[in-house]
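1st attempt posting a full record on here, be nice pls
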Amino acid sequence: MALTLPAALRDAASTYGEHPAVVDGDRSLSFAALLEDVRAVAAGYLAHGMAPGDRVCIWGPNSIDWLVAGLAVSYAGGTLVPVNSRYTGHEVADIVDRTGATLVLVANGFLGRDQVAELRAASNLEAVRAVLELTDLEAVRAAGAAELAAADARADAVSPDDVADILFTSGTTGRAKGAMSAHRQTIAVSRSWAEIGGVTSEDRYLVVNPFFHSFGYKIGIVVGLLTGATLYPVATFDLDETMATIQRERITVLPGAPTIFTSLLGAEHRADYDLSSLRLSITGAAVVPVVLIERMRAAAPEGLAIDNVYTAFGMTEAVVVTMCREGDADDLVANTCGRAIPGAEVRIATVGTNEAVPAGEEGELLVRGDIVMLGYLDDPAATAEAIDADGWLHTGDIGKVDEAGNLRITDRLKDMYISGGFNVYPAEVEQALARMDGVADVAVIGVPDERMGEIGKAIVVRSPGSGITEADVIGFARERLANYKTPRLVSFTDALPRNPSGKVLKNDLREN
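the predicted structure (as tokens):
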């Protein structure tokens, strides 16, 4: 059983051979061809001076070239550092400098920008030996023609305990931190997700989740290697094109953040497309609206009629922590994030400690096990703050676990506010408002109030054609929630700010 990414790639090539590994528009690679392409690019890295353990940044959207370039980093014995494709040159330069990256691969021209110029203007790139273009991997291959044997030797030497990747947190609070994972951890969490989801080589997997995020990289690229599923990378999410691809390619697997599915359900032309091939969707954020799960499972035309819809909970520091399983009842899937995956241990503890509370009581979610990151890059203080002496990762999420071990996230610890002496968890208010006709998306925050200390403010995205007002929203909430939980203020926006995993950036809402 493969314990490193190069070994997983070689196993996939041997097992699945000419079966398509990735299809990107009119380009495709079989698993056998993917291995050869990765070998050639890895050899090109060596020709550009890459040493074992070097960090390599990749800055671009999902594509066949990103997939090849990313796997080639591991094959050449390096550490992959994926970078958000929407970042500015200054943001990328910060990560390049902090990681000491020696190579940077850039999808120059994405969204009409000159990313290479932006990067060079933002940093002198002291440690960088070369800035390479993802759209010109042929030049990288050509440079490494004499290095193939050396690249294979590098792949042979990779250890399961070597750092495979550094994924920077989405930065919902403060400066993003780099979470480091070993090869064995990246492989293990991807394998568990794939096995629980029942993913096989018969699946056609639309990867909307970005490769720069663990949901697209580990639960996308690596899952494809381990299962033989064919990946269809999506560079930018376009609703009609996504539905057309599902119909044309008979896509079977579509995981994603909740916003993907709310968009599909609200699509004006959804009835024009045949989406019946979808069999598996796994979604998750800190809180998923119950009504969304119900509609994903519901028969068409009201719902998406997806056979297997599971919820899960994860984070950059642990990737996937819990998942629902096949055969779980509808209400369990709709109301919980499932049970701990193999290699993970979950505990609900009194806030500020690691002392467990009784089943069914709320507390902070702690996670322990091999899935937990090695630590934060060059930040022992932040690592010690996140992972205590007993190995528990303090997630900052509030939740509870039932007798069967099913996790229910109730909110983020930092998002709770106190109104008139009562604790208010915005997630509960959001769940109620999500059922209101005319509400496409909603977030609730606490804002200062002279009399109450804090009061609730709902930020609402209206459904297309909806004309609901502030009074409508407050009236709906009053009928369903205690007075202290009812928002006193409502504003409307075109879209909520979210990170790549779908979590609302509530700090951004508080600042506006």
